[in-house]
Amino acid sequence: MKKTFLLSIFAALSLSAADTISGAGASFPAPLYYDWAHSYNQATGVQVNYQSIGSGGGVKQIEARTVNFGASDEPLDMKKQEKIGVYQFPAVIGAIAVAYNLPELNGKELKLSNEVVEGIFMGEIKTWNDPKIAKDNKGLKLPAKPINLVHRSDGSGTTWNFTYWLDKISAKWHEKVGLGKTVEWPVGMGGKGNEGVANMMKQTPGSIGYLETAFVKQNNLGMATLQSAEKTWVQANAKTIKNAAANARWKANEGFFEILALEPGKETYPITAATFILLPKEKAADNKKVTAFYNYGFDKGDAAAEKLGYVALPKATTDAINNYWKANGIK
């Protein structure tokens, strides 16, 4: 026992900087990055340490150069990329769900219109049996209980994408709240990270919030059916997320800046989002370690992505990313 313990300590101490990669940022893709990191470590011996601290924290850490890579669900435009001296590329695509904890529904479908989501998050619709909710859910017995709203408390790319969608579908939201990684929420209580929101919702019957779909599934929460850009009813699944991704217009010379919310199509999920990796331009050697890890994820990680509820990038996009890495000497 003592010998094994000492060998474990020696192995840990003998890891060189070349054997480790550090990253921090978005909680949206964290379950997938953990999965890829485990597989990559088994395949190569390289350890990837990822901190799920929110997109705002990820941008701050890469700006301060305290990690090898930052991760953000809010894409940075070229002006911001140049200001902090980073390369940017997408890593995976997912969706943000309007999640809820209503055991009374026994897994039955719950439809929430744009008007209703706006009303709930503005604090104007206060109970689950409100006539505006009942209107689109005929035959569904809605409980007469208060709606407990949960939102993010930290700087979050999930918040940015969710409020981007709200800002586009609601003139009232645009005027009174707006979009950002942090906003002044009219109502609700805050949780840190997708993990914190999910945990708070699990403990709060009658709650509603916004979460990356992997966290909804992991925590057995409900996922509302929403309205597409064409006002048809759509659920978040591989098909409807891929339909949004198919409309992406990735441009390497713009650092792959792209927003996937409200892409057209009757079967296109409205709050689809890509998540992005940020690399410091001056650290080519370290960047090659990071791109090797993400290249492994692109080549070997599609099954893990789909199992967790994400959608892998199209091959044409990963080919463009590889060319972008080569052009900048980071592969």
CATH class of the largest domain: Alpha Beta
Task: Give the overall shape, derived from the CA principal axes.
Answer: elongated
Strand content: 15-25%
**Distance between termini?**
42 Å
| Tally of discrete structural domains | 2
Q: What is the SS-derived class?
A: alpha/beta
CATH superfamily of the largest domain: Periplasmic binding protein-like II
- The helix content is 40-55%
Could you say what the CATH architecture of the largest domain is?
Answer: 3-Layer(aba) Sandwich
The largest sheet, given as strand count, sense and whether it forms a barrel, is:
9 strands, mixed
The fold-level CATH name of the largest domain is D-Maltodextrin-Binding Protein, domain 2
Mean pLDDT level: 93
- What Rg is obtained from the alpha carbons, in whole angstroms? 21 Å
Uncertain stretches = 1-15
Extended strand count: 11
Name the helix and strand elements from N-terminus to C-terminus, one letter apiece: HEHEHEHEHHEHHEHEHEEEHEHHH
Number of helices: 14
Annotation keywords:
2 domains; two-stranded antiparallel ribbon; 14 helices; 9-stranded mixed sheet; D-Maltodextrin-Binding Protein, domain 2; disordered N terminus; alpha/beta; 41% helix; 331 residues; 11 strands
